[in-house]
Amino acid sequence: MSETLLDVQGLRVRFGGGTEAVRGVSLAVDRGETHCLVGESGCGKSVSALAVMTLLARGATRSAERMAFAGTDLLGLDERGMAKLRGNRMAMIFQEPMTSLNPAYTVGSQMAEVMRRHRGASRRAALDRAAALLGRVGITAPGMRLAQYPHQLSGGLRQRVMIAMALMCDPELLIADEPTTALDVTVQAQILRLLLELQRELGLAILLITHDLGIVARMAHRVSVMYAGQVVESAPAADLFAAPTHPYTRGLLDCVPAPGKVARGAQLGSIPGTVPRIPLGFTGCAFRDRCAQAMPECSGDIPAQTRIPGHRYLCRLPAGWPRDAAA
Amino acid sequence: MSGFPPLRRIAAGLGAVIVLGVAFAAIFAPLLVPHDPFLQDLNQRMVPPSWMEGGMPAHLFGTDQLGRDYLSRLIYGARISMLIGVMTVITSGLIGITLGVLGGFFGGRVDDVVMFAITCRLSIPLILVALSVVSLIGSSLTVVVFTLGLLLWDRFAVVARTTTMQVRTLDYVSAAWAAGCSRSYILLREVLPNIVHHLIVVATLEMALAILLEAALSFLGLGVPPPLPSWGLMISEAKDYMFFSPWVIMVPGIALFVLVLGINFLGDGLRDLLGATRDA
Amino acid sequence: MTAAPAIEARDVAKIFRQGTGMFSAARHVRAVDGVSFAVPAGGCFGIVGESGCGKSTLARLILGLYPATSGDILVDGRRLADMGRRERARLIQPVFQDPFSSLNPRRRIRDIVGLPLAAQGVGGAEITSRVAAMLERVGLSAEMAGRLPAQLSGGQRQRVAIARALILRPRIVVCDEPTSALDVSVQAQILNLLAELRRDLGLTLLFISHNLAVVEHICDEVAVMYLGRVVEHAETDALFRAPAHPYTRALLASVLTPEPGRGIPDVGLGDTYPDPANIPPGCRFHPRCPIAVDACRTQVPQPRVLSGRTVECLLA
Q1: InterPro entries under this entry (chain C) (predicted)?
Q2: Both ends of chain B: CA-CA distance in Å?
Q3: Where along chain B do its domains lie?
């Protein structure tokens, strides 16, 4: 069951004006698995996903050593070939559903359009499927919702509609970019639970982009932590939380207030400073200015190390470096 | 800040050069003109521009039907156009911005009154009212400026009102209230500076419109009174001669076109520039 | 504790009129609908709830940005409504959620932080020195004073907002979602700073948030709001250990702690969402409540005091 569906090696994205947002990202998503891409704003996680979908804004250039989806080489695909895959075999949902739903059309006609375009289905059949999917994502009275416009729905309902729309053509891969960040906590739990159920039912592979380590812990099979355009640590979820190895990952985990972990009013762990701007031609570790463990060698090439098979990290420190030294 | 495409930057630069050039000509007109623009020389009527057959080096753009130097009249005409444009924008801007900001800031009853005023203004046929007012009171520079100023404030009011409403709800305005600032301080120091870049764009559009309207009024004989060399009046006076001496209508016509185009280019450029600094 | 509470709300309500157009009937939105609580001096009081529950409106009422429709807000036993704007500003200051919209983009940091001083009529030289000292106090270098907000990062901007809130040495700071627009690593820095300032300056904090983990970390007491009312109010430990209201239970269930393998809990609230313009009869939570009985549809629950907490639920 661990057949690789999406395989990206050495992805780079460069914007005009000499900034590199993604600097050699490699990630693989297996069928039926959730791969979480976690990091703070500006780390390049969303740009990476858009690069995979060939949805980058004009002025951005993408290069990669390898980028394959179910055996198809995405790098060699032209815009028409990509358009055939998008919304069909790979679908994407965004943080703010209003930006991806067209306010001028009803929910039903937008959902039906996806299937008519990709599958040539009849309007009737497409609407039937849309209604069935709306029911599946937990929307009561789907027939009524089909005739409504996006602005008539609440945020939680809109996100459910987006998910149903993404599922219209039975995609194999779902890329979800901060799908619950704009939602209330109770609605967030409902939407995430729905994604888990759908994954179990349909064997979906999910690339989930988030900044929330709580979501990562509860959703991910595999986690890649991004910092300044690089994946600094990648591991199976259980292993990453049990033995975080990169200083950034450890710092990030210390920042999250968790019940019982830190006494009330006591200091939370925090990472000093802010995310740096990375100029072209930057070498060494981008985290070194904020890292308590930094040493002079950190400005040279950083080796990729393996803690245990499947758990890689980008740092000079040995796998079991002592925690306490950080304070 | 170098985000917008090169063609638009070139246009914006061109606009700035044109507007500054015309403004320069208007301000220093007495020093620039080769001849007295009011001096008639009936021996040298309808002299074509110097590059045409029969042209004279002394009259670059030729002379008009009364033998006045056309280049000199064009430069003095720039004075009238710029004066009308600037004064109208100041008058209409004062009216429109005051109404719009008050309506947007206070909302409720005040806003209802402002909206009513805007709706009334939009129902008035612009040219018709301008024509009848000028023909009733008699035309002079002041009358034209005030008539246009009293008519062209609507866009200022609409833009000032909506932008004020947006800014009013932002947290820094709430923070200023909580800091104990007075109402007038918040209006003048927190709200107004943050809508000014929208208003500058409106000002350029209104200026271009005012210049065109003045030309139209002068063309119909109801703008600035005859000895003054307004571009619209020059076109009007030239229309009887245009078939035999097309330059008399083309020179002021092209000048008007270039100036209005330049102002619009500049307005677009300012919008890009001010928008970019705001979002940076 | 016999002294008057630092801040007290007595049956505070705020009703907004919406749609006052010529042809549409006005709708009444009961954003805050009879809220009472008291915060002792030096305490940290958390208000949690989802969007539309009225927590931000309550914050604005306490800041004096809106007048209350009914009820009273008292600071040290005196009515807020009776105070002038300068006096109120010396007592209560805000920190807002979005550090990008809470700083005027066209003014320098010195003017932003010094604004409350200027409003009190303090002179320019004194403003400059006090701003410099306050910037250092919140962990910024004094040379930041000459910069514009656009030149600062999100965390730095939030520090500026905190400096502005503290420059008058207020007794009460109202924090409306102060960390939810920030990255996790920066969020921790800001929370630590707020906790430290509260301890050093003896501040009373009103902390409004949708993030229960953050509230649990920083607050002594918590009120849970739903559609304009406080449905449960207790000391933080009691509330998190044994939530009594079904809505509190759902909120707590939906907190996703970073513990792998726990999966996503079923919060059991269905797909209806609260609408403050259309408050259901009976218990206002009943359409989403997993344990509602027939009585909940008709009978309005009254606040009841149970073992150190106040709950509004017929079944608690």
Answers
A1: AAA+_ATPase, ABC_transp_ATP-bind, ABC_transporter-like_ATP-bd, ABC_transporter-like_CS, Oligopep_ABC_C, P-loop_NTPase
A2: 8
A3: 21-31+65-279
Torsion sign, CA atoms A256, A261, A267, A270 = negative
Interchain contact, B180 vs C88, CB within 8 Å: yes
Contacts of B179 in chain C (CB under 8 A): 89, 93, 115-116, 119, 164, 168
Q: What is the pTM of this model?
A: 0.85
**CA nearest to C18 within chain B:** B108
Pick the CATH number of B21-31+65-279 from 3.40.50.720, 1.10.101.10, 1.10.3720.10, 1.25.40.10: 1.10.3720.10
Residues of A in Cβ contact (< 8 Å) with C257: 214, 217, 258-259
Q: Cβ contacts (< 8 Å) between C250 and chain A: which residues?
A: 186
Tokens of B93: 């801007």
pLDDT in tens, chain A (327 residues): 468 899 999 999 988 777 888 999 999 999 999 999 998 888 889 999 999 988 888 888 898 999 999 888 888 888 888 888 888 889 988 887 777 788 888 988 988 888 888 888 888 888 988 988 888 887 878 888 888 888 888 777 888 888 888 888 889 999 999 888 878 888 888 889 888 988 998 899 999 999 989 999 999 999 999 999 999 999 999 999 999 999 999 998 888 877 666 677 678 888 887 777 787 788 889 898 888 888 888 888 888 888 888 899 999 888 878 765 443
Q: Across the interface, which of A211, A218, A241 has its CB nearest the CB of C184?
A: A211
| Contact criterion met (CB < 8 Å) for C188 and A255 | yes
CA atoms of A57 and C78, how far apart (whole Å): 56
CB contact, 8 Å: A262 with chain C?
Answer: yes
In the numeric block, which tokens belong to residue C190? 């800001």
Could you tell me the domains of chain C?
A: 7-256+263-311 (3.40.50.300)
CB contact under 8 A, C184 and A241: no
Measured in degrees and rounded to the nearest 5, phi and psi for residue A324 equal -65, -25
